[in-house]
Amino acid sequence: MAAPATQTGIVHLTALTPQLSGAEMVAALTPPPQFADARFDTYRADPAFPSQQEAKDALMIFSGVGPAEAKGGLFRRTKRAPEVKPGVYLDGGFGVGKTHLLAAIYHALPARRKYFGSFIEYTALVGALGYKNTVDLFRGADLLCIDEFELDDPGDTMVMTRLLAELVASGTRLAATSNTPPNALGEGRFAAQDFLREIHAMSASFETLRIDGTDYRQRAVDGHAAALAPAEYEATIADAARTGLVSDDDFSALVAHLAQVHPSRYIRLIEGLSTVGLRDVVPFTDQSAALRFVAFIDRVYDAQLPIRATGVSLDAVFPEEMLAGGYRKKYLRATSRLVASTLA
């Protein structure tokens, strides 16, 4: 069963087993609510990092809404300029506005058929419909936006690169951002050439744009996630349940339950919620469980749901040994989102 769309009271996510059909997956391929109004003119480039404005200028040209001679435009049309490539790839750290710019592309292009989803949503669709049916579904689409392109699973990566190669051949334009294990690629930063080697068949289709900067979430909030005392938590959850649907789960039990729900269905798991409640938070000891929690928090953050929690502060759930490993970038992005969500 799935949580009702509109309701008040308390629900336990561990009791829910949401389902999501292929058709529902396709219908959900639009920018998440927090980016429904994302436009180029609402992207505030940080003057301390010129690459942000340069990327914005280039993407406006790619989307057909900026002057070809825009300063810093990567696709500036001169007599010797190469033909504009069908794909753009946004390379940068977390919290620098890559998803905002990706959504701005989606909104700016006057396309008849366009889709916006995370990497995991597209691979889940392939799993639900089969590769051939997915290709047939997207063939002829004007634009595919892919947020958080993953390189964690070689199988999924190659399925996606095959899919994108076929779609580009049929005229589809692409825009992507990445979420790559940084230590495998060096210095905690994404290496564009490693990405292009991984999707070697697609390398000629992408123009890579580097976006530097600091995490905007950390600019605006304190550096620690808020943890509540048990009595304060009880009162907060009870108060929120009077006006909306609130989840209330033991942290360890929820993490265990996430292993029984495909990550593509996490969005349905939190559907209708106004607040997420977590009791007795503890640090992770298992990396697979930590990565599932990261995927869950991505969906919670996209839905702009506040989190209320007891126990260990949520910015301390990923231990140092995990932060020193290949998924450091993922954990740091999740941490910044947890901080923002608990203070919301």
Explain how this protein is built.
The chain has 344 residues and is an alpha/beta fold. The protein is built from 14 helices and nine strands. The two termini are 28 Å apart. Residues 69-82 and 181-192 have low confidence and may be disordered. The chain folds into two domains: 9-20 and 218-342, no CATH class; 47-213, Rossmann fold.
Shape: globular
What proportion strand?
15-25%
What is the gyration radius calculated from CA atoms? 20 Å
How many discrete domains? 2
Q: Report the order of strands and helices.
A: EHHEHEHHEHEHEHHEHHEHEHH
SS field, number of helical segments: 14
What is the helix fraction of residues, given as a range?
Answer: 25-40%
Just give the CATH class of the largest domain.
Alpha Beta
Within the largest sheet, what's the order of strands? 3-4-5-2-6
- The CATH topology of the largest domain turns out to be Rossmann fold
